[in-house]
Amino acid sequence: MPIITKISVQKKLKHRYNIFLKENENDKEYYGFSIDEDLLISYHLHKGQQLNQDQLTQIQEKDTSYKVYTQSLKYLSYRMRSKQELIKYLQSKEMEMSYIDEVITRLEREGLLDDLAFSEALVRTRMETSSKGPLLIKKELMDKGIAPNYIEQALSHFTYEKQLDKLHKLYEKKMNRTSKKSYKQQLDTAVQSLIQKGYTMEVIKEMLSQINTDKDMDEEKTALYHQGEKFLHKYKRKKTGFELEQAIKAALYRKGFDQELIQQFIEEYVKNDG
User: Fold this and answer.
1) What is the pLDDT at residue 272?
2) Is the pLDDT of residue 274 over 60?
3) Could you give the CA distance from residue 274 to residue 266 in angstroms, rounded to a whole number?
4) HEC states along 142-191?
5) CA distances to 111, 116, 160, 229 from 105, in Å
6) What is the CATH number of domain 160-209?
7) Can you say how many angstroms the Cα of residue 1 is from the centroid of all Cα atoms in its chain?
8) What secondary structure does DSSP assign to the chain, as a single string?
């Protein structure tokens, strides 16, 4: 049976030790394996100790599992992770799946890996620090391999009332009262932005029903005349008369302005300009 001839600490990893062996008293010493300090102590390894093959196999398997465990703890120390994130990380480190499964079970038992707690924490963080709506957060959780029932439980914290409150704030940021765009164009852009952020049309419509969506006609007129003058300058190079009026009307209508305001601009600027 192999005999431990020397135990030396590794130069770069002070918590790991190299174990040297030889088969018999007169044989040449050779490197056997390395082991973590905790396992070195728990197995009471010492110089002159004999180890049979079963012991060697057990120690090395235990050490491999311990490596996966400590690697996992290091990865989890930066922030909470989902089970799938941890598995992918360990696989990228070329860890064997049998050891990964063993460590995952241990971490879950110790409460260090919990997909529900992870999901709830992620939802709270996104609610407090981002503009993401529940649909985007749901996709993020799905991408991290969270089970549907956990996603549902976690998103229950993002209540309808909290969504409405966040939508009111996001809407106000999007609606620029001094914009040179029509109110309708601003509104359409704001709604599209909210949809892209992961809010449903149901909650967006409810938010819009709670606010004053009346136009400020002075600002609307200022925006229209700003746009109209640009179109007039653009089209009058190639068009005149009725064709010019129709081209400008169509352009302004596409920008979301009311026909009545558009006609006012045509009467005041286009016909007079002609």
Assistant:
1) 63
2) no
3) 10
4) HHCCCCHHHHHHHHCCCCHHHHHHHHHHHHHHHCCCCCCCCHHHHHHHHH
5) 10, 15, 36, 69
6) 1.10.10
7) 54
8) --EEEEEEE-SS-TTEEEEEEESSTTSPPEEEEEEEHHHHHHTT--TT-B--HHHHHHHHHHHHHHHHHHHHHHHHHHS---HHHHHHHHHHTT--HHHHHHHHHHHHHTTS--HHHHHHHHHHHHHHH----HHHHHHHHHHTT--HHHHHHHHTTS-HHHHHHHHHHHHHHH--TT-SS-HHHHHHHHHHHHHHTT--HHHHHHHHHTS-----HHHHHHHHHHHHHHHHHHHTTT--HHHHHHHHHHHHHHTT--HHHHHHHIIIIIHHH-
Q: What is the pLDDT of residues 111-121, one digit of tens each?
A: 999 999 999 99
CA dist., res. 179 & res. 137, Å (int): 31
> pLDDT higher for 219 or 3?
3
Round to whole Å and give the CA distance between 158 and 138.
11
Of 1-10, 21-30, 54-63, the poorest mean pLDDT is in: 21-30
CATH of 115-155, one of 1.10.490.160, 1.10.10.10, 3.10.129.10, 2.30.300.10: 1.10.10.10
Residue 129 identity (one-letter amino acid): T
